[in-house]
Here is the input.
Amino acid sequence: MRFSAFDFDVITSPPPEPEAPIAMPQTLRLLSTLALQGALEAAARSLAAALDTPIAAEFAPTKVLVDRLAGGESADVVILTAEAVAALGEAGRLAPGAVALAASRVGLAQAPGLPHPDIATPDALVATLRAARSIAYSGAGASGLFFAGLLERLGIAAEINARATVIPSGLTGALVADGRVQYAVQQISELRLVPGIDIIGPLPAAVQTPAVFSAAAMANAGGAGAGADATRLLGLLAGPAMAAAFAASGLEPLAASAASG
Here is the structure.
């Protein structure tokens, strides 16, 4: 049998190298408290585009997230109360470089179209709560833990809790929207996530303790490159675009104002 040069080349050439698999971008996992959900969802596309990396965000009350992290769960970046971030940092779970992002105030909401009750002073707030038919607050969120303590300090905890609905997690405003309760207490940014309710306003400044929410990268988070992406995400979260998103969602931005000052 005769072989042409072409035939020989075909027979003796090694099989072609398999094509290298296309490297898929690694998804960045973000665990965030509910208070920042509105701002983060509004900015999700721009954040992912700036990073050129998909972001998988999950939202839950701070206490729920802290319990999950204590059980061994991990992520690339977490956004929690400043106190929770500090505690996780001391435990070695977080990388250095946490940044305070926003402060949030607790407010009261009701069904739309009704006159607003007076909550301008502590005495007025007490009178409004005592007159309330029903009220909802969260058992695991920062707002609910604050409100439970406030009821104790005001001396009306037993009276109000007797007709309160304490939800384990989620948005208390949903209970106002479907008519289950008269008032909902939660971070104003969380109340804004619920359509069909009317935010009366923040609780009085004299009894209000704004919650500060901070972001941090988890130590040894993810696989190769995850740490660098997490650091880049922290920079974006602390930037002016996110400051505008925080303000639009009812939060008080902290990082950008601190940087500009």
Observations:
- Residues 142-154 form the longest helix (13 residues).
- The chain has two domains: 28-104+211-260, 106-202.
- Residues 28-104+211-260 form a domain with the D-Maltodextrin-Binding Protein; domain 2 fold (CATH 3.40.190.10).
- The longest strand covers residues 211-217.
